[in-house]
């Protein structure tokens, strides 16, 4: 029944899709992108209840003034922009390595066929836990600290993972250590980058 469990995320997405039209647009989106001042104030009242939101509105107006000269790019324009190629390549390599290293390690660990769905579920749960943890600490530590700490932790985990894979033929328990390191890598990725 693991396939039913994994398809549960599709049900949650469908529920969100059904109820999304009933929610107001984001006030910053309405003011900064659509330049709809009245809609922005109306959305603030819908989201936060009755009150005086002039300070928040003034902050958005200041942000609008500072970003007035910048051009907002769509996805295709970003992909055509040569200055972001190094960042895009880094992201793609990181995502591809995440996908491929898990497959290799799970096959190296000689996990039983019946356990693999639970390991996949565990990977998803560790991603969920890391996202919840990150959203609760990002204001305290800041993005820069989480990014640099996350990348350093990921590098350390990858070194340990490589060592455990190299020595897994001599010490069988290192195969399971590799699976644990994959979980830690995913958590470090979710908390940091």
From TrEMBL:
Residues 1-193 form the Major facilitator superfamily (MFS) profile domain. The chain crosses the membrane at residues 6-24, 115-138, 150-167, 173-192. GO terms for cellular component: plasma membrane. One of its GO terms (molecular function) is D-glucose transmembrane transporter activity. GO terms for biological process: D-glucose import; dehydroascorbic acid transport. It is a multi-pass membrane protein. Its main location: membrane. Pfam families: Sugar_tr. It is found in: Membrane. Keywords: Membrane, Transmembrane, Transmembrane helix. This is GTR9 protein. It comes from Regulus satrapa (Golden-crowned kinglet).
